[in-house]
Amino acid sequence: MRSNRANRSSNASRGGFTLAEVLAALVFMAIVIPVTLQGLQVASRAGSVAERKAVAARLAERKLNELIVTGQWQSSAVKGTMQEGWQTYNWTLESESWAEDGVMRVLTVRVTVPVQGQDYDVRISTLVDATQ
After folding, report:
1. What is the rounded average pLDDT of the residues 71-93?
2. Euclidean distance between CA atoms 97 and 95, whole angstroms
3. Quick one: which of 118, 116, 114 has its CA closest to 91?
4. Range of the domain at 125
5. Domain total for the chain?
6. For residues 95 and 107, is the Cβ–Cβ distance under 8 A?
7. 3-state DSSP helix/strand/coil % of the chain, to nearest 5
8. Under a CB-based contact definition with an 8 Å cutoff, are residues 91 and 69 in contact?
9. Residue 45 has pLDDT above 90, yes or no
10. Which of 15, 35, 58, 101 shows its CA 20 to 30 Å from the CA of 91?
């Protein structure tokens, strides 16, 4: 019977945490939590940028095709805005001579993608025959 009491008292004394262990755990959490939140913010931004860039690439391709088919690429209206859902995207058209052949033109549609207060660009280019 006496050995049971000795085992119970030794087990009870090992069951809690010391003040130093609790403080060490709090310091560890104070370091880990901000780093984790920063990582989540970076991952969230990367996901938003990827999603919006995919939409912008689709819109740029659509606008480039529209400008070529309608012949508007030859006019002076070389910029504008497009709406996709609740988001507005600005686009510009750049036309320059192709270095390999003076008859061909390089058309580039640049779409600006706003994500969390920062702008990113997506560019889509193609060649067109300038004689038509």
Report:
1. 86
2. 7
3. 114
4. 2-129
5. 1
6. yes
7. 50, 35, 15
8. no
9. no
10. 101
